[in-house]
Amino acid sequence: MPMIEQGSASTESPETSSILARFNDALTHLGQARSFAKGNHIGRVLDLGRKLLTASGGPALLYSLAREFDGAGIFEGSDWEKPENLKAKFVPHTFNEGDARLVTLECLSELRMLAVANGQYFHPGLSSEQAKHFLTQVLAFNLQVLFGASDESTRNRPATIQKMLEQHLAFIAEHIGLENILDQVVDEVWRILRQRPIQVDNVREMITRIAACLFDPDIQVQGTARGAERLISALFGPTHGCREDPGVEVYLQRLDSMDIYALEQEAQGFARAMHDTGLVSAYHAAYLRRMADEDTEYIAKALGLSTTGRDCLFCYRDLVLTLIRESIYLETCQAIYGLAQFLERGLLYQTSIPNGLWRAIQTPLHPDVQAQISALFGSNIPPRAHTLSALLSVLGQPLGLGQGNNPACQSTRALSLWSYTNPDYLLQIFHWALRDNSLTMHFEGEAINSAELGAGVVQSWNFDLDTLSLVLVPHLDRIYMEMGRRAGTRGEDPHRWINPEFHGWWVHRGFAIAVDIHTQKLDELEHFISTFYTVYNPLHNGNTPVVHPQPAGIAVTDSDARFVGWHAISILRVAVDQEDVIRVYFFNPNNDSGQDWGNGVIVSTDGYGEQQGESSLPIDQFTSRLYLFHYDVREFEILAPSMPEEELQRVKSLVTGSWGKGRE
Known about the structure:
There is one protein chain. By secondary structure, the protein is an alpha+beta fold. The chain is 53% helix and 8% strand. The protein contains 31 helices and eight strands. It has helices at residues 14-32, 39-54, 58-63, 66-71, 91-97, 100-117, 128-141, 143-146, 152-155, 159-176, 182-193, 201-215, 228-236, 248-256, 260-277, 282-291, 296-303, 307-315, 317-327, 335-345, 352-362, 367-377, 383-396, 409-421, 423-436, 467-487, 495-503, 525-536, 619-625, 633-638, 645-656; strands spanning 440-443, 446-449, 510-513, 550-557, 563-576, 582-587, 615-618, 626-631. The strands form two sheets. A six-stranded antiparallel β-sheet has the order 3-8-4-5-6-7, with helices on both faces. A two-stranded antiparallel ribbon has the order 1-2. The longest helix has 21 residues, at 467-487. It is globular. The model is unreliable at 1-10 (pLDDT under 50).
């Protein structure tokens, strides 16, 4: 059996060469073993294959060995033995399982497919066209991994597995060509943008790659990529003055020669592109900074403001213009959308908000905070520009926050709730964190200082967060952990006490949980379901709306309805959609709220009355994934539970058929 000789690749490191040599040796033993004994050798081959997949250049080395490891029988007796029977839609399930050997086996199978697709290896029963189509579907089904996005499943994945998958899929994409999945990628971009996230780096990456495919003469684009041009123009040429992406310096020279009508058209073009896509071009930032020294009317038009936003702008003109000068740069251009939405919320009419913003403009940054920001973002613009721009984004888009690739859903939810309900408090704690690099909160009257605490829930941070979250969430995470420690010996779920103390007075003290925390079994499930319907369903609570968003907990499941983990969300409102279905609208701090939770429970983010950033489900489906919520005890005592038995049993069956399976 031919093998790659150790050291044959010029870019091979000594460590990679050593792993490759051992892999070749293990593969030889596997190939020489009889069928009944191959199981004794496959484990070692997979373990070494996993190390190669993680190593630099490893996927390429394994790709060149596709014929060899297939012939040695590594897939013998497994679901991967006959590649012509494989289904791409099942690949994400394998990846999400997180079993290192199974994931390695899947990656090796795809490298075998790639060798067939490129004509490097002939496999009976599988054509090169079939192999290429399969891999195209694999890429389309794994766009999040391919572009570095994350959800609950990826956060639960070991870091080594995540690194291996990212490197492996990037290798597949490089050889298959992104042009074959452009239509899926464009649809994915629009789906994400409709949620209006604050962090759009991944989206910008997708659009840049789309543009590279569309405008590369050597790439033959398959499909129409409908909607791609709007995305590309929104970033690189949203107006007549910059339609061919001339560069900012050239654009500023053009602005100097424009008359008032042309300047107005530029403003309207920027506003139209921004509100259409949720994306902001660097040219928009250049225009806004230039117009901050000119007529404020141009600013209003460039932000696309309604009457409310215009009133806020002109009433607080000096403050808004100062914020633009201090925070809006080419590097922070996305904050322009946050600024526009902030003005539209009318928050400046709360006396504490403009005062808090004037203070934020002047707040001295703690040396450690300043050093962290400079290390992450460089020193092209002042660190304060990053903190102020992030503050504008969060105040303007409270439902656009995301936890990044960190298990910090509680802290991210808190930031969203404060921006949504109590923005002056958010300004206050941000001020403390910037100035002192610490944060003090109180739990049942006792002060907790983050500077005096050890690590929180998150042991190792990923920095794929907005700057406000980068500054605040580590402090909040440690305080949340300490509150849990103090309440953890009371014999009940500590969230009963943590949530009201951590979030604010407006969190109800009534507490319901569907799980016994000691046994992890379902506990009084029917009473739990009935209580939620009584206090939240408008048909049962006298049509009483949700006044303040309430923290809640859900049991996240995958597309096969299997339990993934517990997750923090906020219940925002309960309302009837256009099809007369009662839906629960909620905030999910996950980076992408549109998820398939199995058994027909598919979270919607658009099309059923959702506001930007909201997720929604019919109330029965939502309740089936709910495991913890707060409610007004006195209101529950006044209301008479009246949930129909048929609906109660339907919700119960959705629970026991998903995350509740085995917990009865």
